Amino acid sequence: MEMVNMHEKQLFMDGKKFVAVISEAGSAGVSLQADRRALNQVRRVHLTLELPWSADRAIQQFGRTHRSNQTSAPEYRLLFTDLGGERRFASIVAKRLESLGALTQGDRRAGPSLSAYNYDSGYGKRALMLMYRGILEQESLPVVPPGCSSEKPDTIDDFIMKAKAALVSVGIVRDTVLGNGKEYGKFSGRIVDSDMHDVGRFLNRLLGLPPEIQNRLFELFVSILDLLIQNARREGHFDSGIVDMKANTVELKEKPKTVHVDKMSGASTVLFTFIMDRGVTWELASTLLEEQKNSGYDNSNDGFFESKREWMGKRHFLLAFEGSTSGMFKIFRPAVGEALREMPLQELKSKYRRISSPEKAHKGWEAEYETSSSQCMHGPKCKLGGFCTVGRRLQEVNVLGGLILPVWGTIEKALSKQARQSHKRIRVVRIETTTDNQRIVGLLIPNAAVKSVLQDLEWVQEIDD
């Protein structure tokens, strides 16, 4: 019986069993990776049924299936319920894993960002404060609460009353007084300053609420958080760490140029100019739709759509088919490829109408694909001219690589002179060519700022082959 764990582990590694169930205590010293020496070299899928409180324990668990001499790295699936309060566990682990740096951002093999689960950030604290002030009716809520309508103020008042009562019941709203007269039946109270920004306490106290109000409060919090992040992105203030820039084809436009040489070390700063094609051809779009139909998961709403409204005298086209979540649709556009977020069916039908004629879809798609190669979606009269990249299929991207730290201040100063707010912020990007898989990590320099940056760095010479 003392060796039963090792016997079961060997059955798994020999491919005689395909599921291994382990606990934190029982997994000490057990290696379950797709080892080259084992018979079972199938890629592991590691399911975490209960997230640990600390990041180091999470890493210890993940390390059971991710070790040296493996043929492939495992795929991790972190499971938790839809209850808003339980997101606290995901938030804690995500925040601490992100603090480990290279695991989630720095390394070129790093996986996707965990920022979507890190609610305890600067934006999260501000979103919580705005939500609390809205519920206490000190300010108006920046978004319409879930399950409410802006056309029916009574629904919003009812939600605020229920939310206030819920926060009173879990001890977040203190010193409550029940109103009289016109305010009869309404609670009034205060939230102490230390709780106004404490996201961890908010998520922890949510666990003590009934599921309905718990989820509605959490959805309101996330909606405000998304709004703050969206505004920060628009204004150019949002810092998302190292960003992967992807396109269907990425090629070097010309030979890289040395733009600065450090006198002490002799190391150089190099300017790389890439041409990126983000578009989706009609043939590729048709293939994607055909594959979706053949997969057996096709939906009656899958197909090509055109916008109901015209933009600059033209209608825009897209391909939509249902994704992994019911009611959510993947979106592909001829100019910019696959959209980052999936679109709800209701939003899709309100903004677009389905095209029944393949000829019309083909013609519209091809026209938008060709036009987007040379101009942005604002048309030929765009104020930014060739510097505007919104809706442009072919983009010229400039990245400064090589030695960066000694010239960081110079680059920052050069970017601060730019007119557009989004061009003033320094962004670290990672880009890989599709022809020879050359990977470059460096600072993204907006096209409008290249001349200013090169003048400040004093262009030196072209790099040798």
TrEMBL record:
Do you know which PANTHER family this protein is assigned to? PROTEIN FORGETTER 1, STRAWBERRY NOTCH-RELATED
One GO MF annotation is:
chromatin DNA binding
According to its UniProt entry, one GO biological process term is: regulation of DNA-templated transcription
SBNO alpha/beta domain boundaries = 293-393
Tell me the Pfam families matching this sequence.
Helicase_C_4 (PF13871), SBNO (PF25373)
Q: Which residue range or ranges hold the Strawberry notch helicase C domain?
A: 1-244
Give the signal peptide range: none
The lineage's top-level taxon is Eukaryota
Gene3D superfamilies linked to this entry: P-loop containing nucleotide triphosphate hydrolases
Question: Would you identify the family this protein belongs to, as annotated?
Answer: Belongs to the SBNO family.
Which residues does UniProt call coiled coil?
none
Q: Which organism is it from?
A: Stephania yunnanensis
GO cellular component assignments: nucleus
Protein name in UniProt: Strawberry notch helicase C domain-containing protein
